[in-house]
Design brief:
The complex is a heterodimer of chains A (128) and B (169). The longest helix of chain A is centred in the first third of the chain and has 39 residues. Chain A is α+β, with helices and mostly antiparallel strands. Chain A has a three-stranded antiparallel sheet with strand order 1-6-5, covered by helices on one side. Chain A has a three-stranded antiparallel sheet with strand order 2-3-4, with helices on one face. In chain A, a hairpin with an 8-residue loop joins β3 and β4. In chain B, a hairpin with a 4-residue loop joins β1 and β2. Chain B has five helices and six strands. Chain B has a six-stranded mixed sheet with strand order 1-2-5-6-3-4. The chains are: A alpha+beta (128), B alpha+beta (169). At the A-B interface, α1 and α2 of A face α1 and α2 of B.
């Protein structure tokens, strides 16, 4: 009788340890899948490139000795905004809410008149 | 017998922990390299600064009523106030020095905070020893061939040296 009870307890212990192992494995695989899904989209990379692209375009327009216009078309899955007063470019994701907006500064000039206008899906930067 | 079972359990646990830690480290490395992906544009920013200085009449380019003369430095414009007004970026600081063709300093001006000035201190062996020891900053130097008005209506050849300190994160 005592031997039977011990055997039963050992079987339950064994099954429990397998369940814990299985749960741990599921947790690891699901973490990997979530991370992999985030990384596969490359949206963060696109946002980093877009803010720098717009900032450098602004600086290049500012450097021009003549009147010049430059048109930038940002990717459709993000909002890219050029704040002229503070001279900061901000990129926000349209798709994922949990992606933090990215900021990148552009060069500020009190003497040159550089302005930006949003026209449909384009950003027009001009020096007049 | 009991000791043997305990040892076997410990080995099994160690093997499991090894796999869990390996996988966790792998996930950490992948996610960290993704989030902290470097986008190094410090050299491009320095280049654009030099173009701003030499091509825009709001910076150092000489201009009259008719046109702007790119790559021709108006010495009167080379001052700290002018540089601060014509180009300011929160991640950048710079010092501009105009030399004549024999390498003698004509005039210098800067747009630097106290910290940036410390980073741009020149050393004897290394060019910027302080800056090189701080990985968050990158210092660079550019030399451009320019014309400048030495005396009234008298143009001379010289070099404009631009030293830039950039916050790269």
């Amino acid at each position: 009788m005592g031997l039977f009870k011990m055997k039963k307890k050992a079987v339950v212990d064994l099954q429990l340890s397998w369940v814990v192992d299985l749960l741990m494995l599921v947790l690891l695989i699901s973490t990997f899948m979530v991370l992999n899904n985030k990384i596969k989209t490359s949206q963060l990379h696109d946002m980093k490139v877009s803010v720098r692209d717009l900032s450098l375009t602004h600086d290049a327009v500012s450097a021009s000795p003549n009147e010049v216009y430059s048109v930038i078309v940002p990717k459709k899955n993000m909002d890219v905004i050029l704040d002229d007063s503070a001279c900061v470019v901000v990129a926000k994701s349209k798709e994922s809410v949990d992606t933090i907006p990215l900021r990148f500064p552009c060069s500020k000039s009190n003497l040159a008149k550089v302005s930006s206008v949003v026209q449909e899906d384009k950003i027009v930067i001009s020096k007049t | 017998m009991k000791k043997g079972i305990l040892a076997a359990d410990a080995v099994e646990l160690l093997i499991k922990l090894f796999f869990v830690f390996t996988f966790a480290i792998f996930l950490y490395v992948v996610s960290y390299s993704y989030l902290k992906e470097p986008v190094n544009i410090a050299n491009l920013e320095s280049y654009l600064l030099s173009r701003n200085l030499l091509y825009s009449d709001s910076c150092l380019a000489y201009s009259d009523e008719v046109k702007i003369y790119p790559l021709q430095v108006d010495v009167k414009k080379l001052s700290d106030e002018r540089l601060n007004a014509c180009f300011s970026k929160e991640t950048m600081g710079f010092r501009v020095t105009l030399y004549d063709k024999k390498g003698r300093e004509v005039k210098s001006a800067k747009s630097l905070t106290v910290k940036q000035e410390g980073l741009l201190t020149r050393g004897t062996k290394l060019l910027y020893p302080v800056c090189n020891s701080v990985p968050q900053y990158k210092c660079s130097i550019r030399k451009d061939l320019v014309l400048y008005n030495a005396k009234e209506d008298n143009l001379a050849q010289g070099f404009l040296v631009t030293e830039v300190v950039n916050f790269v994160g």
